[in-house]
Design a protein that fits this description.
Elements lengths: L1 E5 L7 H13 L2 E5 L10 H12 L9 H8 L2 E5 L9 H10 L6 E3 L5 E3 L5 E7 L11 H12 L4 E6 L9 H13 L2
Parallel strand pairs: 1-2, 1-3, 3-6, 6-7
Antiparallel strand pairs: 4-5
């Protein structure tokens, strides 16, 4: 099963256009539209409850639904436009809810994270209006988590940048990326 984590909110999202091209190649998928999730406030009471559930290995609790879904996916596609020098904040909220010791990762006796996720591939799809897009502010963070915590070793960036620069043929840039997607 492919899990599509969608952070796109604009009706004509360029990131969604690229994601749709990729998803058409991958076949059936389950979409998780993050704008439709009301994430609970992460306060002390929330953390105490979470820690207690993890300690008692109560992983069937609804609090861990997103983590279980993520851990069971065969392929993961994250659509995250590059906004204000990073990905949308809702993606960080999502990450905070899927990082669950005992579901998405565990620690070795030496204290190193070991991934527990089933996925063998994660695609990170993004677009940006400009060309200054340091990977560590978006893709690099997700790639590091995928490889070092979740055990997903094949992480691929699909991107189109410079879309809002004066004189850029936005459709041509997007079509070029779609052509590369079709070769996947």
């Amino acid at each position: 099963m492919t899990l599509f984590i969608n952070t796109c909110v604009r009706e004509e999202s360029r990131t969604k256009i690229l994601s749709d091209a990729l998803l058409s190649k991958l076949g059936d998928y389950e979409e998780l539209k993050l704008e439709n999730i009301d994430f609970p406030k992460t306060d002390e009471a929330f953390l105490k409850k979470r820690d207690s559930l993890i300690a008692s290995q109560s992983f069937d609790n609804p609090m861990f639904t997103l983590a279980r879904q993520f851990a069971k996916a065969d392929i993961i596609v994250i659509a995250a436009p590059y906004w204000d020098l990073s990905f949308p904040a809702v993606l960080k909220q999502y990450i905070e809810h899927i990082n669950v010791l005992g579901i998405t990762f565990e620690y070795t006796p030496e204290g190193f994270p070991k991934g527990l996720c089933k996925a063998n591939k994660l695609y990170y799809v993004m677009t940006a209006g400009g060309t200054y897009v340091p990977e560590e502010y978006g893709f690099g963070y997700i790639k590091s988590l995928a490889e070092n915590f979740y055990g997903i070793k094949d992480v691929e960036l699909i991107k189109a940048t410079g879309l809002d620069i004066y004189g850029t043929d936005e459709k041509a840039v997007l079509n070029d990326v779609i052509t590369r997607i079709e070769k996947i």
